[in-house]
Amino acid sequence: MRSTENNDQYVKDIAGSLCGTTALNVSPIEGGRNSRIYKVENDRNVFALKFFRPDKEGKRERFEAETTALRLFSENGIEATPRVVAEDKTNNCVLMEWIEGKPVDDFGINEIGELAAFIQVVDDVAEKQSGQDIRHATEACLNGSEIVRQISLRLSRLDASKDQYPELRAFIDEGFIPVFNEISDWSQKQYKHSGLNFSENISFKQQTLSLVDVGCHNVLRKDDKLYFLDFEFFGWDDPVKLVADTLQHPGMVLDEEKKQALRSSLVKIFEKDEMFVTRLKLLYPLFGLKWCMIMLNPFQPGYQLLASSADAQRDQQLKRVRNLMKSIHESYKEFPYVQCHSGIS
Known about the structure:
Elements: H1 4-19, E1 25-29, E2 35-41, E3 46-52, H2 61-75, E4 84-88, E5 93-97, E6 102-103, H3 109-126, H4 144-157, H5 159-162, H6 166-193, E7 208-210, E8 219-222, E9 225-228, E10 235-237, H7 239-248, H8 256-270, H9 276-295, H10 310-331
Antiparallel strand pairs: 1-2, 2-3, 3-5, 4-5, 6-8, 7-10, 8-9
């Protein structure tokens, strides 16, 4: 591992190379777990330098996803995202326009409208694409069996932690797995009842270019306008996953009025697919259960928490997951935002 001093010089050298100047001030910005971001300043401009977390086997999937998305947005005149200034695939980083904005702590009706408008314009861009040069979104779900497989995989990854955390074992074995089996069985039966094949991919025409991780946590406000960030999971996917994940994202704390507004705006974008609402109803609770699994990441081996409060953080997170699963289990047959045809029960 590089020393802190050497790492600082390494970052500064890369920033200088991408900016074409050595007169630089480089400072780290607190970010998420998926990347490291630095603010880069020279005499004329301010940039964001983003280093992506390495992918398995040395691949650059996050780099490819983000740069593809930002180039595509720029080429199509979308102004609500930063512009790419320079790319460095070897060092797995990209230099971007710096957005001098403020985080959005509370999504109101206006922000929901801007979010929906952004998703709409990206879907408009998707309709013009052949798809051959753009990857699938990270953990894309083009059929029902895939979301079941992904939940099962996340369950298996928690096996190693169940001996260390007996309360986790009890929750998974006695609570989560029976609910997961019940809901996945219901979803498969209702798929068949609706004339759909649970294991068959939707057509390319039904897919969209998904932003994947979208919400107030990846938004800045500048001059009363929202700018959207972080596209390292971008790619083709079923819009059902985009809508279900956005509505259920743990970071999107919305009251019922705002949830209804967001739901209505998003469904309107994709209702040209006559089976979209049916798929959304039948897969929505499964995407909620996947969020339960994601929220249990603090129990994964190697997950970094503050040592002084790690146990308390895990306890609190397990409590949140219990409550979320209980809510999903109580309401999974009654999609809370739209009415589907009466043949689904």
